[in-house]
Amino acid sequence: MLFRRRSKAETQQSRLLECLTHLESSELTRKQVPDDALRQQLEQLQLQLRERHSVNSTQGVRSMLHAISSLLQRCGLFAGHTRRTLVQQEGLIEQMEQRSSLLESELNAAADKVGQSRDEVGQLQQTLGDTVSDTSKAVIKAMEGISAKLEDKANGAHSVLENIIRIGAQINLLALNAAIEAARAGEHGRGFAVVANEVRNLAEVTVKHVNEAREQLDFAAIEEDLTELRHHTMSKLESSDQAVRFSQERLGNLFDHINEDIGQVRQNTDILFETLHLLKDSMGRIEDKQLWISSLSTQISQALEVLPSGLESLSAAETPLERLRAQLGFTSHKDRLSQIQQRGILRVAVEPQFVGLSFRRKPGEPLQGLDISYAHALAEHLGVRCEFVETPWDLCTERLFSSEQPGGMPADIVISALPPDEGYTHVAYSDPYTYLHCVLARRVGDSSIRSHADLEGKALGIINDPAAFAVLDSLGIGTDTDSRIRLSNLLAYSDQSRIHDCLARGVVDAFIVDLPIYHWACNNPDSPWFGKIETLPGNLADQSYFYSMAVSADADNATLLSEVNRFIQHFTTTAEREKIERFWQGQVIQDSLNLDSLPGELKGADDLHSMAAAAQAA
Known about the structure:
Blueprint: H1 8-25, H2 36-185, H3 190-216, H4 220-305, H5 315-327, H6 336-343, E1 345-350, H7 370-382, E2 385-390, E3 413-414, E4 427-436, E5 438-443, E6 459-463, H8 466-475, E7 477-478, E8 485-486, E9 489-493, H9 501-504, E10 510-514, H10 515-523, E11 533-535, E12 545-552, H11 558-571, H12 575-585, H13 605-617
Parallel strand pairs: 1-2, 1-3, 6-9, 6-10, 7-8
Antiparallel strand pairs: 4-12, 5-10, 5-11
Helix pairs in contact: 1-2, 2-3, 2-4, 2-5, 4-5, 7-11, 11-13
């Protein structure tokens, strides 16, 4: 049935309410109510109605003011988050300016080295030209001398040969005459004596000329000159070779310097790209916060616009305000632990790319790691299951107050490598659930880095975490001129997916990090960084430090945080916890540090219970 007839009781109730409402607003006169006793009773009833309405209106106003105040406080928190992001952005911009200045100076240095190399090449060419020219002239001059001597020798030999030819002619003529005389003389041989005498004389002359020819054809001097020429040429060529080698060595050194400068330029370029990535991420977060603040302001304005002028009814304004408070994690004074157990889900904020703590080995696989193991154990203790709110690590505490986008639900708790720090606004911490060391990591086999003292002039990476900066301060490491160990570069990473690759690829020379974040990556064969990066033994911090679980510092979380502490106290004594620690950290570190050991006003379970008691008393 779409409609039904109103019952008699409902009609009487409606009439009664109308009468009471009319009575509350009417003026009771003697004329209207002549009976004094009845009028007096009605006046008392009217007074009670008006007092009740006043009380209800006051309570409604107080409730609404409290809701508006809490929403404005949350706007203040978001503004604080935005300011923190802006401070990070200013630091990144300043670092970019420093890197740009260094890049410019290094490029200028490289240009100067290139110009110097060009001059050296010109000098080398001139030296080689002069050396070759001198060598050529010496060789030509020596060869000309040899040619002249050879020509003289040839002329002398020619003269000797001409004499031999004349002698041969004379001998031939004498032989002819001897033959004629022999024919005539017959038995007479007197003419032969003359011929024989001439032949003898001719023979002597021939011997003499042969000796002279031997002397003229002696090339010993020429051989000596050739030997001297060879030695001279070799000496010149050796000098040329030495000059060339010297110039090549100088040129090689210059180009080595150029390569080093180019390497510095490349490293600075990589750092600039990393800084730009961080800056882009920071700007995105600022935009998210501005979106939240804008959405809150709009919804508060819309809720205030529906306020009735006379405050007779506040329900119209309370409804959107309560809905908005629920989106921001307010529980309307309801116990959060009861809500978690009622819904059966514990919403845990984690960084999904924290290798060793909360990460996926392959896309699509469930999250795993040290923090994930603790989260599942806590959920089992509470009798619920985990629902992970995946968010960048430095935004995890902000997820206690808002979802990534307006309209979603915030997280109940943070379990994500969180060292307690008063820099996180409106956050309360549990007891320590794991202790750890701060270690120095390097590329495998890099013997130039054996301790933090070797970081002078190096590029260092850290996680964008107040605790990491505190460790640097305690060690005197920084980029300032007054730093005891001055770095060439310092990169603070918010994107946890880059903190292993940046070291393996050489963007930074070393990384200071929590041991669990690098232990699995360095030592597990399934890690993509296995055999590429390694951690050095020892603790860089003065003492061990710890991670805590965190909730928003609201009274509604008092029982939840107390139950978390009871879980931690029990779980730390179990074999399951020891197995988790040894697998993800390589060891179980025992310590007695707690919130009271740390500086600053850090809130814990006792503080939340005090807040709850004060709220209940009010």
